[in-house]
Structures are given as structure tokens and as C-alpha cells.
Amino acid sequence: MRATERARNRSALVHQVRYALRHPERVPAHARRAARDAWLRLRYRDHIAYYRAVMASDAARSAEAAVGHNPSRQAWERIGRMQFDYLVGHGLQPHHRMLEIGCGNLRAGRLFIDHLDAGHYYGIDISPHILLAAQDTLVAEGLQSKLPYLALADDLTFAFLPDAYFDVVHAHSVFSHSPLHVIEECFAHVGRILAPGGFFDFTFDRTEGEEHQVLHEDFYYRTATLTALAARYGLDARFMDDWEQLPHRQSKMRITATADRARTVAS
Which residues on adjacent β-strands are paired with residue 218? Predict the structure, then answer.
């Protein structure tokens, strides 16, 4: 993505008018999202409850639509494979214990489950609708013998998970839909559940201009903001430059505990 695009404020009226003129065919869908956003924000003051309702609305159309705005099965499979290939190429091994935050209907999770030893995958999501779809994916892929754990979560404190347990924590397209206080809650607690030398990979919508949000669904952050927030909780955050070469509009960072700076999960 070009630097000029990274600097755009997508919430600005001028940008929205120009976008509508360039893509008139997308205006009806955005209008529906805006109307839904206004209604749900009146009903739900808590962001988790709000976004759970968003996912329920999207899942009513299709499970794929609830995991990203593109309902194409081909896109669903392609993005899942991209996540899997990248993480395996950057340290995920079969014996590792993995937590996937926002596992959805196992777009990438089905591949992680197949790759990992039985019982080593743990997926959490805020949406009961999408977790039921995840069970359908397990059946369709024949992965029952891998005994993955799928759990409903209401926050990112991980209070029900054990200390120093997960070698790899992964969150794709979660922080792109999260206000900063939700990300901070995750950073405040993820260090406790990381095993010594473990890492936490996440994607986010990056801006090089003013931080902003579009409706209450899409949030854009500067890299420095997330790096500083992680440091507040004893975490090192590293921007993953090579992810930028892949056909995905979000950026990726890797977090490790500052005390583990010189260690890796392979050691």
C-alpha cells in the first residue's frame, strides 16, 4: 500500500465523498453498515457486545462474510492459507501450544489444527454464532481427532487460561476492529499466558497519518502507538516488514516479553 493511502483519514467527509464518486456500486453496502452501526451503538455501549452483534448480523448472511467483509469462499481459503504459511515460516512448530484470538470459523484455524499436535490448538471468539460455524468446519475438514478447544470469550483478560502456557498467540483482523482500550486489555494480560520465549503475532490497520475509526467497526493506528502501549506492559513489539510484501491490506507486529528478548520458542 502506498504511503499516501496509509496517511488517509477514511472517516473524513471529503474522503468518503471522493470514495463514493469512485465506487458508486459500494455506496448501498456502506449505507447499510452505517445504519446498522447507528442502531447497534444505541443498543450496546460495551464494544464487545456491540461487535458480537455485528458478527451475528454478518453470520446471518454467511460464515465467511462474518470473517472479513468479503463473503467469497475462495478469498476465505486464500487468506487463511496466507496466515498459516506465514506463521509456519516464522516459527510455528507441531509441538507448540497455540492460542488463536478471534478464531472465527477457523479460516486459518483449520490449517493450524491439522499442523499442530492433538490438543495443542485453543481458539476463542466473542461470537457464539461463529463458534458453531467453527464446529461445522471441524467436521467438514475431518479434524475431530485433533481435539481442538473452542471457547466463547467476553473479554481479553484470558482469566480462564493458565499461566505461561502458550508458545504462540495469534490474532488476525481482531485489533482492526478494536478500540484502544480493548487492545490495552489484551497487552495487559497476554504476557501472563505466554510460555517462556513465546510470541504473540497480530495484525492491525495501519495509518501513517491521524489515527481514526470508520463507524465503530474499523480502527486505524500508528505503529508507534501500539509499540509504546506494549512497552507499558513489559512487552517488546516488532514490526514484521516481510508481511508487507503479501497481498493483505493490514500490517503485522510480533510481541515478546521483554525478559525473553534473547530467546525464541525454538530454544
Answer: 214
| Per-residue pLDDT of the chain in tens (267 residues, 90 and over written 9) | 555 566 666 655 555 556 556 767 766 777 787 888 888 888 988 999 988 988 888 877 766 655 655 557 888 899 999 999 999 999 999 999 999 999 999 999 999 999 999 999 999 999 999 999 999 999 999 999 999 999 999 999 999 999 999 999 999 999 999 999 999 999 999 999 999 999 999 999 999 999 998 888 899 999 999 999 999 999 999 999 999 999 999 999 999 998 775 444 444
Spatial distance between the Cα atoms of 36 and 31, rounded to a whole number of angstroms: 9
CA angle 243, 259, 188 (to 5 degrees): 70
The distance of Cα 3 from the centroid of its chain, to the nearest Å, equals 23
Q: How many residues does the chain have?
A: 267
Task: Give the C-alpha separation, 189 to 180, whole Å.
Answer: 15
Residue from 198, 186, 177 nearest 153 by CA: 186
Cα dihedral sign, 68-143-198-90: negative
Q: Which of 128, 150, 122, 20 is nearest to 66 (CA)?
A: 128
**Alpha carbon distance 81, 248 (integer Å):** 12
Q: Beta partners for 100?
A: 123, 170
In the block, cell 493450524 appears at 112
List, in order, residues 6 or more apart from 46 with CB less than 8 Å away: none
The Cα 20–Cα 205 span in angstroms is 21
Q: How many angstroms separate the CA atoms of 177 and 161, rounded?
A: 23
Answer yes or no: pTM beyond 0.70.
yes
